[in-house]
Design goal:
Layout: H1 14-29, H2 32-48, H3 50-54, H4 61-87, E1 90-91, E2 103-111, E3 114-118, H5 126-137, E4 141-145, H6 151-163, E5 171-173, H7 179-184, E6 189-193, H8 196-206, E7 213-216, E8 221-225, H9 231-243, E9 253-259, H10 260-273, H11 284-299, E10 303-307, E11 313-316, E12 333-339, H12 342-349, E13 354-355, E14 357-361, H13 364-371, E15 378-381, E16 398-399, E17 402-403, H14 408-414, E18 416-424, H15 439-451, H16 454-470
Parallel strand pairs: 3-4, 3-6, 4-5, 6-7, 8-9, 8-14, 9-12, 11-12, 14-15
Antiparallel strand pairs: 1-2, 2-18, 7-17, 10-11, 13-16
Amino acid sequence: MLSERGSTNGIVTVAFLAGVRSSGQTWAALGVSARLAVIARLRRLVARDAAALAATVARSPADTLVAEVLPLAEAARFLLRRTPALLAPRRLRGGRPLWLFGVRATIRREPCGAVLILAPSNYPLFLPGAQALQALAAGNAVCVKPAPGCEAPMRALADLLQQAGLPDGVFQVLPAESGEAAVRMGFDHIVLTGSAETGQRVLAAAAVALTPATMELSGSDAVFVLPDADLELTASCLAYGLRLNGGATCIAPRRVFVTEADAAALQSKLLARLPAIPPASVPPAVAARLSALVGQAVADGARLVSDGEGRPVVVADARPGMALLEKDVFAPWLALVPVASPEAALAAAASCPYALGASVFGPPGAAQAMARRVRAGSVCVNDLIVPTADPRLPFGGRGRSGFGSTRGAEGLLAMTVVKTVSERRGRLRPHLAPATANDAALFAGMTALLHGNRRTRWAALRAMLALGRSGATRA
């Protein structure tokens, strides 16, 4: 618990947050072009130091370059292209209510102020890095709280931002243990990437200061395999999803709904690909949780067809309602769920409270139609995971998978607050005139005239003309 002027390691204090806000105000005042100039230089520095940046992540350099460094550079390029138009003041034209004559309205997008990013451990460079760049482009100051043991990537990014010309104090890396204190301090916006349970704790703490938040939370992704799907392609994609980052990916395939006629063939093709997947390092607590859930599923009639001894866990003949299919477990595993039809698959998938991502495999027309019906924040057709790295696409979930968007135009706009500016021109202000006894009749007639059917409008017009002849209307 943090007192009003307490701190964690002397870092997260009232004075510290005030300094962050002050730095942000100076940064915002530079304007969009100056801010993007820094991001443009950062992009070149990321390209120059790509190998060194990849080395800060505890994963193979090739995997880190393709999964984190390259997408980060693409996120920067997206911001350079789209930010000026997205953040430009928008003058409203057309559709103004008749009774607001002389009013000119503009919608402005302004920075939130000080943004706190609570970063994950599975992609410790790209996910918080892309979120931070969006916040910076919008004119915010940013504090990133890395996951324990994952400070190096954010410190490397901080160094590159400094080389790119970012003013002091605008981007800061907090100690990994300062999360709860930082949340309670009253930042202007919080972005969390983490589990649903962590999201609940963060929201409870953020509620003290009424801090708005974007929650990018857990997934237990569904895969729908339609009749006439390419099973070789499907199996290869599923194997890739099990291999990528050792299964520690929030949109990895977990619940594979396949028609009963194709279930055995898909199982065979998937199992043939498992020996090529290198063993993953799974934390003991996670492994124990998965083992318990799998054991319960087997006791309820599922079959364990790959036991996880040096390869991913695969469960066949799983059924809706099994606890395994309703939990998020960050490890290389999936369950094959035979269904009678695509309709049955949709119904079965709905029992899971998570709705982050999904994939559909099948003929293009049928797969697209299915994608439109799937409850998820992102749906890939005849692929999985990789297309969501497109920086143009917003990313976010539903249900226990969170709310709000990161990345894409929506993610950038989420780092802003809306201000409307209304200017009234001319000297006429009818609402300033003293009230009259006929005001109710006047306003009822105006409503009918503007919004009624033809007959009602004619009656209202006659009544208002009569009020005008009597001199009872407002000047």
